[in-house]
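**Discrete fold encoding**
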Amino acid sequence: MNDQNDKREEQEEIGLYEKLASRTADLLEEGKKTFDEALKKAKDELASAGDFSREQTDKLGEFVRRDLKENAEKAKDAVVKAVEPQRLAAGVQSAFSRILTSTAETLTELAAKSEKHLEYKTGEVTSPGTLTCKECETEMHMTKTTRIPPCPKCHKTLFRKSY
């Protein structure tokens, strides 16, 4: 019976994670909120609906924050790699360069602030991606949102994620 309760609790956490991420994205797309405001509003809405406690939304909200910030860093890197300034006219190049530099600096600051959130631990819920054991470097490929198990090789519990 304990296994059934653990499975049910895991499915609840995965569902909450997905709801928080989806609602946060919806609020950001509306363009009226910053990331932090959107995540707070999504957590408030789900907690006040009564299906989840404030503690649950806060806990899973940190996982959503960690994963979305990591995705923002990957997007920044892709933009920087995709732009070839030498193909742009001088005036446009200068303006575009200032915009990209400002954006890159902002995203770099966000990445630095979220560095502590890049460590993933057994028992946490995470989105799809590859987790690399910090001890033995064994990779675990997560294909869906799930709770993180211990390393299958060394049984350690700390990981770094890539997408």
About this structure: The chain has two domains: 2-82+114-162, 84-113. The radius of gyration is 19 Å. Confidence is low (pLDDT under 50) at residues 87-93. The first helix runs from residue 2 to 29.
